[in-house]
């Protein structure tokens, strides 16, 4: 823990950590030492990890990357945080992210940008940018992330690490500051599939009293099938994931990875996910709709920021929210409120829900022909800080390959598979059917 805290301090310019507290971390480490000494079995005993600042923690501030929650301390730990601690993990601190997990570049954080350690002039990806950078720059052996539309997979891809988002409902959302509740899912980000398997085993499991969408599926040991053969594994390659728009360097790295899989005994199957492009408008209706509802709790009354000067109650709400929320968050609240409003609900929100169902059905069709699906995580390598300027559409379009799996609630991974333009890492995306995390992790492990 001391080693990683020292590295975190020495590389503070990367912007990965938002909070550390050596006394708290070392106290947790000593407690873990005692558990080890007493012979207690704990799968992660003494393993230091850091948490995305979307997870609430009682021992560290929790901001969600927003000014709205500056200095906020939660009276409880998120279930994911608690479960990892029960498995013996030691918390190094909290990691930077896009405000309320809304973004693809980490540039939407109220606490400054995070720099990609492979090239500091580039973004780390988002929204779990701090998590990806902490692992890639060895400021933590592993980290937690959250993935609503790609926020574990895309930064993992851009920073050359491994990350997995489980099936929606396998990890409890309790204590994860909500963005889009029907999509939000927690998962680990680490150096390898093996490390991810260990962490995921501790994270998953039912939480019926605290998260009504948590599934009644028991925790699994995801390391159990690592090392299994890939002989005969059918890898589905969706033609829509290789359409124009995918940069040639990314394409080359993905093609090489697929060839490598064939050498490992897997069989390549051409498939189609015909509604891939629709995932962008569908997601950017549903996610803001849910966000506009979830974020209504930040009204300056119970917790978080409250404007100093105001006349009446309504003005207090307005000023608090105008001051506390960043521009992208405000944009999404407005879009979400609009698509849910009378007269537009049917035209946008309901239509989006219908297409979401069709996207999920397309995957079920595809999984009749293959065991896992493979393709790029993003159409390009990490772009330059500021490159997308004030154009949110440029960010949204880059989410095209991660959004379909999120809308369907499927498990998905990113594993490093080579380098593209500027020597930047490229990630291979692997998507599995519901509850096929072990299969995904085995396929990833064999490649690594
Ligand atoms: N980039 C997507 C968005 O901005 C996904 C973010 C996420 O998965 N949290 O909403």
Structural commentary:
The protein has 448 residues and is of the alpha/beta class. It has a domain at 2-203: Alpha-Beta Complex (Amidase signature (AS) enzymes), CATH 3.90.1300.10. It contains 14 helices and eleven strands. The strands form two sheets. It has an eight-stranded mixed sheet with strand order 4-6-5-10-11-9-7-8. A three-stranded mixed sheet has the order 1-3-2, sandwiched between helices. Strand 10 (412-419) and strand 11 form a beta hairpin. Helix 6 (193-203) runs antiparallel to helix 14 (437-447) and helix 8 (279-294) crosses helix 10. The chain is globular, with a radius of gyration of 21 Å. The structure holds glutamine (GLN).
CATH A-level architecture of the domain at 2-203: Alpha-Beta Complex
The CATH topology name of the domain at 2-203 reads: Amidase signature (AS) enzymes
Backbone structural class? alpha/beta
- Beta fraction of the residues? 5-15%
Enzyme class: ligase
Keywords: ATP-binding, Ligase, Nucleotide-binding, Protein biosynthesis
Pfam family, one: Amidase
GO molecular function: glutaminyl-tRNA synthase (glutamine-hydrolyzing) activity
């Amino acid at each position: 823990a001391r080693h990683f805290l020292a590295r975190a301090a020495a590389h503070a310019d990367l912007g990965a950590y938002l909070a550390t507290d050596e006394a708290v971390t070392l106290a947790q480490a000593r407690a873990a030492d005692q558990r080890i000494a007493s012979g207690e079995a704990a799968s992660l005993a003494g393993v230091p990890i850091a948490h995305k600042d979307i997870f609430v923690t009682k021992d560290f501030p929790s901001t969600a990357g927003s000014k709205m929650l500056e200095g906020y301390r939660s009276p409880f730990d998120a279930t994911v945080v608690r479960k990892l601690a029960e498995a013996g993990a030691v918390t190094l601190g909290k990691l930077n992210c896009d405000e309320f997990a809304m973004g693809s570049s980490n540039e939407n954080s109220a606490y400054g940008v995070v720099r990609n350690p492979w090239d500091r002039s580039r973004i780390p990806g988002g929204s779990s940018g701090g998590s990806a950078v902490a692992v890639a720059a060895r400021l933590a052996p592993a980290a937690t992330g959250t993935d609503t539309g790609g926020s574990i997979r895309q930064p993992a891809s851009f920073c050359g690490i491994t990350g997995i988002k489980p099936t929606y409902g396998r990890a409890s959302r309790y204590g994860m500051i909500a963005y889009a509740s029907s999509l939000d899912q927690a998962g680990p980000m680490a150096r390898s599939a093996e490390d991810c398997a260990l962490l995921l085993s501790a994270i998953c499991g039912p939480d019926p009293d605290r998260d009504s969408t948590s599934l009644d599926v028991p925790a699994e040991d995801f390391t159990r099938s690592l090392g299994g053969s890939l002989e005969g594994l059918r890898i589905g390659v969706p033609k829509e994931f290789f359409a124009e728009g995918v940069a040639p360097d990314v394409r080359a790295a993905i093609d090489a990875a697929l060839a490598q899989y064939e050498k490992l005994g897997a069989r390549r199957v051409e498939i189609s996910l015909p509604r891939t492009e629709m995932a962008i408008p569908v997601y950017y209706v549903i996610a803001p709709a849910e966000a506009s509802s979830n974020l209504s709790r930040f009204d300056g009354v119970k917790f978080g920021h409250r404007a100093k000067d105001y006349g009446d109650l309504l003005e207090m709400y307005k000023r608090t929210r105008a001051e506390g929320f960043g521009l992208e968050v405000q944009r999404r609240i407005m879009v979400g409120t609009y698509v849910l409003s009378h007269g537009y609900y049917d035209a946008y929100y309901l239509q989006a829900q219908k297409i979401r169902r069709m996207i999920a059905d397309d995957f079920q069709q595809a999984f009749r022909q293959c065991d896992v699906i493979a393709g790029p995580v993003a159409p390009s390598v990490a772009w330059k800080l500021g490159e997308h300027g004030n154009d949110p559409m440029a960010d949204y379009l880059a989410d095209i390959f991660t959004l379909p799996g999120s809308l369907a609630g499927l498990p998905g991974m990113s594993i490093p598979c080579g380098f593209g333009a500027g020597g930047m890492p490229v990630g291979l995306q692997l998507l599995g059917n519901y509850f096929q995390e072990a299969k995904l992790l085995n396929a990833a492990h064999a490649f690594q």
